Amino acid sequence: MGISDVDLSQHEAHLQAWLDRQMHGEMDYMAAHGMKRARPAELEPGTVRVVSVRMNYLPPDASFARTLKDPQKGYVSRYAVGRDYHKLLRKRLKQLGQKIQQHCEALNFRPFVDSAPVLEHAIAEKAGIGWTGKHSLTLSKDAGSWFFLGELFISLPLPVDQPVEEACGNCTACLTACPTGAIVEPYVVDARKCISYLTIELKGAIPEQYRPLLGNRIYGCDDCQLICPWNRYGQLTDEGDFHPRQNLHQQELLDLFAWDEETFLSKTQGSPIRRIGHESWQRNIAVALGNASYSIDITEALEQARPRSSELVREHIDWALAQQERRRYQATPVSRQQQRLIRSIEKGLPRDA
């Protein structure tokens, strides 16, 4: 943990420029509160300090990179394979506030965990938790970026911590590794291109140009973290709630796609995945099935699901079926005579030309 004051004015211009470029996409809440996001004392009157905390979530023996290499399985971002961190971290922050309150005649405090317009990375940077990496996440030399952040706004003028030195140097691994090029320049992420945004925040259709780039990622993306050299020093969590839940980790896409809404709600109870809803879940998996190697089982599953699916999901099923058909065509041995016939048809020539 670390402590910062409430002066985040140096980040206001950067935030406004990002909003002006519409890089927040459909996340209207990012712009709805104006500059309150950079002004903690306006968000919670009386606040003079922010206690910033980190909580490691890297589970042991999670084999995530292996899942990315298996196109028949669904990849879920590391942070989401366990229980929802929001409630757990917020409860701990509340308890911390109550402990401090026992020693103060008057103290106002309010915990935040992604629950209000808070510049959590800017606060963490100022509190000495780490520095902001070129992928816009907070980095620490002893933990990489595999941790959650939370904030406790308080009215007590505690002594503040000092920021740590930035240590990305000339490294641009995260920029080059991003599948969709969402890190458009160092420290600037265009959410509209980010796989995490496309699979979690976006409620409508995933733009076609990004669908092949999603691969088998059905909820979030970790590529910019997986490639980061500082994550070699990531610390394993000792919090059991953050360990993988077997019904969400390393599962076959076809098994996940077969979940009806009732099953989805049951299997994702207590998981952050639940908030995207069954429709977006089906949409994401349909895209992943379209990116998988050709399989008659996949084709049949998509065709069987199509009549009972929503218009949004049907659009992605149709795209996936077209991708599967293209792969079937590419995988089928073709004789020289058939090749000549195909080339003739493609050129618009008579078959007997």
UniProtKB/TrEMBL annotation:
GO biological process, one term: tRNA queuosine(34) biosynthetic process
InterPro entries linked: 4Fe4S_Fe-S-bd, 4Fe4S_Fe_S_CS, QueG, QueG_DUF1730
Annotated metabolic or biological route of this protein: tRNA modification; tRNA-queuosine biosynthesis
Record's subcellular location: Cytoplasm
Co-factor: note: Binds 2 [4Fe-4S] clusters per monomer.
Principal location class: cytoplasm
Catalyzed reactions: epoxyqueuosine(34) in tRNA + AH2 = queuosine(34) in tRNA + A + H2O
Role played: Catalyzes the conversion of epoxyqueuosine (oQ) to queuosine (Q), which is a hypermodified base found in the wobble positions of tRNA(Asp), tRNA(Asn), tRNA(His) and tRNA(Tyr).
Family as reported in the entry's similarity comment: Belongs to the QueG family.
Protein name per the record: Epoxyqueuosine reductase
Gene: queG
